Amino acid sequence: LQLPPLSWSIAVPGGKARQVMGNGTQVFVVDHARKADGGIVATLVRQRELPGRVATALPPLLMANGRKLVYPSGTDLAWLDLETGATGTWNLSAINGRGFSKNSETTVYLDAGTDGSAGPRLFDIDRATLVHVRGDEHADGTLSPLPGRDGWVRSGRTLTLGRGAVASGEPEPLGRVIAAAHDAGQVTQ
What is the model's pTM? Predict the structure, then answer.
């Protein structure tokens, strides 16, 4: 199997010897099997093109039980359905979204905002909703993902590893949150 130079690889959960691999523009789903002589055979399952470059040196987030790849694209958050090839983008730059980290198979933990409403949020990738995160203990420092797994690291006055953030309040549709940011003049340019 010949592939171009790759910059990341993520194991697909579920017991199969499957990896999602890629670089800034392409994604490959590859199965691995051990031969009787101990060698390994790699088989290309599918190949996809990324419509926007992955805007980080870190690997994308593998979500939806290995079906969806979520990744920063410019200052937004983009997605690729690995099965269908469907793609899209969530305009999280409008609320200064940053530090995108996998919280669960359907939620991304992120920091958002630039004013008194700034702080950690959960973004539901299936419903396109945002909700605040319970507790203030997660709000100090720079948020970064833990590559290849659920969770995040926050470095500030202390170093905090976290996972499984809990929502606080009712989720709001992303469009409503962005409109409110526009109305308040908080949108980043």
Answer: 0.86
CA dihedral of 117, 75, 79, 14, whole degrees rounded to 10: -70
Q: How far is CA 79 from CA 16, 63, 75, in A?
A: 23, 10, 13
Distances from the Cα of 2 to the Cα of 31, 84, 93, 163, angstroms: 14, 23, 36, 36
Compute CA distances 45 → 18, 28, 75, 78, whole Å: 9, 8, 30, 22
Residue among 54, 171, 186, 28 at smallest CA distance from 108:
171
Cβ pair 101, 145 in contact under 8 A: yes
pLDDT digits (tens, 9 = 90+) for 132-181: 888 755 567 788 888 878 888 888 777 888 888 888 889 999 999 888 87
- Identity of the amino acid at 139: A
Residue 94 DSSP code: G
Residues 162, 27, 189, 122, CA torsion sign: negative
Cα distance between residue 140 and residue 160, in whole Å: 9
DSSP 148-181: TSS-EEEESSSEEEE----EEEEEEEHHHHHHHH
Q: What are the backbone angles phi and psi of residue 13, rounded to the nearest 5°?
A: -70, 155
Helix ranges restricted to H, 38-183 = 174-183
